[in-house]
Every structure is written in structure tokens, then in C-alpha cells.
Amino acid sequence: DADVTQTPRNRITKTGKRIMLECSQTKGHDRMYWYRQDPGLGLRLIYYSFDVKDINKGEISDGYSVSRQAQAKFSLSLESAIPNQTALYFCATSDDVITGELFFGEGSRLTVL
Amino acid sequence: GQSLEQPSEVTAVEGAIVQINCTYQTSGFYGLSWYQQHDGGAPTFLSYNALDGLEETGRFSSFLSRSDSYGYLLLQELQMKDSASYFCAVEDSGGYQKVTFGTGTKLQVIP
Predict the structure, then answer these.
(1) Strands (E), B1-111
(2) DSSP assignment, residue A71?
(3) Distance (Å) from the C-alpha of residue A79 to the closest C-alpha of chain B?
(4) Which of A43, A56, A68, B91 is least surrounded by Cβ atoms within 10 Å, i.e. has the fewest?
(5) Whole-number Å distance between alpha carbons of B70 and A71
(6) What is the mean pLDDT of chain A?
(7) Strand (E) or helix (H) holding A110
(8) Of B52, B55, B74, which is closest to residue B65 (Cα–Cα)?
(9) Which tens digit of pLDDT belongs to each residue from B2-58?
(10) Could you give the C-alpha distances from B87 to A8, A43, A53, B69, in angstroms and in order?
(11) A55: how many CB neighbours lie within 10 A of its CB?
(12) Is the peptide bond before A8 cis (omega within 30 degrees of 0)?
């Protein structure tokens, strides 16, 4: 089983619908992240969390919200999806205070029609 | 804030050496990392430079010059499986250590 698991892996939805992407990890890491990937734009940080009580906005948090339900679970929500939120979303974890190495899930591909 | 720029595409011949550059503007960072991502896959960590200079890990080496705001990833003895996207990234030193990625370079290795 993967150390960082994302569900769903693929989702097609309509404009205005609420969507939740879930991430769970078995690595025991405190830090968790949500990134969005679009062609030519690299990986852009949406939200990050260093523990259950610590949640921070990244560079593109507008239109998104998150919930850290437990150390192992970090969910990303789109309250009212819009077409320009169509992208590949990655969850990542880290616990390396030296290199900050990130461990990524396999990604969730979201299409908003 | 952090801004990291990379060439969008690079093509190189199997068995050759290729260098992927990363120039950055940052408000402070702990070190420069590199990640590899194959099409359809998740990014995976390759290397990290905390100090100026060259770090070698097998066929891959990574370099950092803080005075020049510049780093690069060097891939030697290229193999077809090295065809992938490569991203540089910095870990912010502004208290929260969030990780910001560059725009990515798609490497195509040709026979």
C-alpha cells in the first residue's frame, strides 16, 4: 500500500458542485501539503499544515479550503467548483527538517465541466 | 516570496550529459532541492543542496551558488528512462518552511 493515499484518483464534476479530495498517510509525518499542477506552471502550493491545529494558506488558496482531521488526514475542498480549477492535485507529506523532502501521493485528477 | 525559473524543455541524446538550470529570486531559503516526475506519476525527490557547491548522487549531481541565485541539475550517462520533468524547489526560511517549486523542465532523451 502507498504511504500517501489520495482519493478519488479521478473525478469529473460540474460547475458549482462541492468537491472534496482526501489524503491519508501512514508515514507518521506532521507536515502535510496540497499542491495543484497545471501544464507549464509547475506545482503551486494551495495549503499546508504542520499539525492538526496549524493550517496555512499557500500562494493560490482562493476558492479552496482544507481540514486536518488528524495527523494522518488532510482534506482539500472546493466549495463551488469552477472550470479553471480543472487540474491535477497532489498531496504531500514531510518530516525531514534538514532537506524538507516531500513524499507525494499519486495525484487526483479533477475535471470541472 | 519565492520565484524559480527553469527552461521549459530540453532535449539530449542517450549517453550524453545534460544540465538543467534553475534561477531564483527568494526572500530566504534553507536549501535547493530537485524532483523528478515521469508522465502520469508523482514527483520524487532527487537531491538537496544546503551549501554552495556540488552534490553527487550516482549519475545525478546538483549544484548551488547562492551568490549567483542559481543552481543546476546535471544528469550524466543519460538513459531513456531519464525522460521526465524535473523541478527545482526551495524550502522557505521565513518561519514556516513551506516548499515552493520552479516551473519545471521537460527532458526528452532521444536515441
Answers:
(1) 3-5, 9-13, 18-25, 29-37, 44-49, 53-57, 60-65, 70-75, 84-92, 99-101, 105-110
(2) T
(3) 24
(4) A56
(5) 36
(6) 93
(7) strand A108-112
(8) B52
(9) 789 999 999 999 999 999 999 999 878 889 999 999 998 999 999 999 999 999 989
(10) 25, 9, 30, 16
(11) 16
(12) yes
Query: How close B109 gets to chain A, by Cα (Å)?
Result: 19
Residues B61-70: contacts with CB within 8 Å, 24+ apart?
Answer: B62/B32, B62/B34, B64/B31, B64/B32, B69/B23, B69/B24, B69/B25, B69/B26, B70/B21, B70/B22, B70/B23, B70/B24
3-class secondary structure, A83:
helix
Compare CB distances from A42 to B31, B97, B102 and report the shortest one's residue: B102
Q: How confident is residue B99, by pLDDT bands cut at 50, 70 and 90?
A: confident
Asked if A60 and A66 touch (Cβ cutoff 8 Å), the reply is no
CB contact under 8 A, B43 and A102: yes
Q: Does B13 reach chain A within 8 Å, measured CB to CB?
A: no
B92 close contact with A: CB closer than 8 A: no
Cβ neighbour number for residue A1 with a 10 Å cutoff: 4
User: Three-state SS for A17?
Assistant: coil
Cell of A12: 469529473
Q: Are B41 and A106 in contact (CB < 8 Å)?
A: yes
Cell of A28: 507518521
Query: How far is the C-alpha of A5 from the C-alpha of A22, rounded, in Å?
Result: 8
- Residue B107 corresponds to which cell in the numbers above? 527532458
